[in-house]
Design a protein that fits this description.
alpha+beta, three-stranded antiparallel beta sheet, 6 helices
Length: about 220
């Protein structure tokens, strides 16, 4: 459940100044409106934490110059700011981020190698709003992890089932691939993951690539 706070439209700078520390909620700014979201709980929290751990381990083992911050707000415009469940940043690009050290704010799409959203009841945000906004911002890759199959039928098909949607930026537009059941998921720029469909999608066993492969480039290449 998410809620829009009863506040007049504000700017991103006002949002960051207002953002409360140590809150039991997360907040995003959408078209000037502050949106309150409960922090991930239960399976959502476990899945996001495990996936962040596996991605971090993969980045380290592949000796890639990227990192996963504990907290990060993406400034998409003067009235929009998102906080993904997971974000992978490029070390070299951080030097050109004027607000990173002071506020953990990212202002350039080039700094982001991957954004991940784990779907909950507000599935329209992930499949509709954020997909369009991340695409326009130039984020290279976006994962929608719908481990409960909550998305609308026009997005995940019928009958509904747990679905992993990979969005890869090509010539300024996202190209989408979807994976279900026990399919092998092939990522253009990140890794391979086995999706084991049981009560949810277990996307948590990254398979490192020992050498370059035309069909499977090295992670984040």
């Amino acid at each position: 459940m998410i809620a829009s706070l009863d506040k007049a439209p504000i700017t991103f700078d006002e949002f960051i100044e207002w953002y409360p520390e140590n809150s039991e909620y997360r907040y995003e700014l959408r078209r000037g409106v502050v949106v309150e979201m409960p922090k991930p709980r239960g399976k959502h929290s476990k899945l996001a934490g495990n996936l962040a751990f596996e991605l971090g381990a993969f980045v380290r083992s592949a000796n890639q110059p990227y990192f996963i911050p504990k907290e990060c707000v993406i400034k998409l415009s003067n009235d929009m700011g998102y906080e993904p469940d997971i974000v992978v940043l490029a070390e070299a690009a951080i030097a050109d981020e004027p607000r990173w050290e002071r506020e953990s704010v990212i202002t350039r799409g080039q700094s982001i190698k991957l954004a991940v959203e784990v779907v909950s009841t507000n599935w329209r945000d992930d499949y509709l709003l954020k997909l369009a906004d991340y695409e326009a911002f130039g984020i290279q890759e976006y994962w929608i992890v719908d481990y409960l199959g909550l998305g609308g039928r026009r997005y995940i098909g019928s009958p509904k089932q747990p679905t992993f949607t990979l969005c890869h930026l090509v010539d300024g537009e996202f190209e989408l691939q979807q994976f279900r059941g026990s399919q092998l998921i092939v990522f253009p720029h990140v890794s391979r993951v086995i999706a084991d469909r049981r009560s949810d999608i277990r996307l948590l066993r990254s398979v490192s690539l020992a050498a370059p492969c035309p069909a499977l480039p090295l992670p984040f290449a």
